[in-house]
Amino acid sequence: xxxxxxxxxxxxxxxxxxxxxxxxxxxxxxxxxxxxxxxxxxxxxxxxxxxxxxxxxxxxxxxxxxxxxxxxxxxxxxxxxxxxxxxxxxxxxxxxxxxxxxxxxxxxxxxxxxxxxxxxxxxxxxxxxxxxxxxxxxxxxxxxxxxxxxxxxxxxxxxxxxxxxxxxxxxxxxxxxxxxxxxxxxxxxxxxxxxxxxxxxxxxxxxxxxxxxxxxxxxxxxxxxxxxxxxxxxxxxxxxxxxxxxxxxxxxxxxxxxxxxxxxxxxxxxxxxxxxxxxxxxxxxxxxxxxxxxxxxxxxxxxxxxxxxxxxxxxxxxxxxxxxxxxxxxxxxxxxxxxxxxxxxxxxxxxxxxxxxxxxxxxxxxxxxxxxxxxxxxxxxxxxxxxxxxxxxxxxxxxxxxxxxxxxxxxxxxxxxxxxxxxxxxxxxxxxxxxxxxxx
Length: 440
Ligand code: LLP
Hints:
Elements: H1 16-21, E1 26-29, E2 33-36, E3 39-40, H2 41-48, E4 52-56, H3 57-73, E5 78-83, H4 90-99, E6 102-105, H5 108-116, E7 124-126, H6 133-142, E8 146-149, H7 152-165, E9 169-176, E10 198-199, H8 200-211, E11 216-222, H9 233-251, E12 258-260, H10 277-288, E13 295-297, H11 301-304, E14 308-319, E15 324-328, H12 337-341, E16 347-349, H13 352-355, E17 360-365, E18 374-381, E19 389-392, E20 413-418, E21 421-426
Helix pairs in contact: 3-4, 3-10, 6-7, 8-9, 9-10
The protein binds ligand LLP.
């Protein structure tokens, strides 16, 4: 059964109680219903409206610390560089920067978000298969810790830009290890067929040639094989290949300062097992411990996914010829993952009277004019009435960042629950703002 992508059989789906038991930050009080970090979600919805992203500072902080502790415990000198593509809410980025995280960015926009959130230029890794000349020049001129290079062609371009700016560009070569991460095809990145990285057999000569280029400073190798990876085997294989390459570079006397191991660590979207950070850390130390080199990790989803939910209101419940539809005020423009990856997200009622009511199959859908605008099919849920609330769980990663204004629906607001209060950290876009860049 694939809980993460695709439709699991109804019997295999976790119940509402099981989903909540696995997420102790979500609790239920008989009078107010579902709470996040003891803040009633009904109150948050009343104050800030819906659809609404609700993030937990406590969960984010605990996850960062757990990963950091696992890495330290495995005697690794590791630096966590949060992959901003998963979430660019500045309040969350500020928290991560304060915790000591670095940043992994893939565009000038993300570079700017990282700087605004307080990440030092040296703590920023710039990744991505299609960095433009303008983006590379800006990052180099403003300062960047490392640029992950995805091709010989890009390396040449970076060398030329750096020479023009009179700089030495710190670069790592991204290896394509030709390993299947065993995840959804659309987020697999480490196979030979994928657009990412440089084939392993071209790394050595390219590295040696780059070391001899005065405008480049070779800092090491990088790899990233995909996202939502739920078993450690693909990591073992990819990291084994990377370690071989590092050994060969070092044997030739070439400088390697650090190794960038990418992100991809998966989370349970239901109650399925997912690797623990300690187990992941031991894979890292087996592959790289002997080098005594610092390693970089680029986790996105693992840090922020469980720390966020999408709070939505039921517009109405309707009965089709054969199915019950729960129509929400949140749609695929807000949370796109179910529509494009068939991704499974837990959906939990917020109102106390619904939380323990009998359940029957329902399709949970958004208001957008496409059948793909479906959050769940045949999900065991109680009867709903207009104005009820539901929480779509584990939406902290690749939620708000992938949202759009499709159907001219304004972007949702976001609140951060911290220190016993819910603070608005992104206000709802207005209807007027939908037209603010239209020149007509
Ligand atoms: N580093 C690189 C080079 C990446 O391409 C990615 C993700 C990450 C790090 C972070 O991966 P994570 O730890 O978050 O798995 N929109 C998709 C996920 C796309 C991931 C793209 N690259 C989704 O909603 O599942």
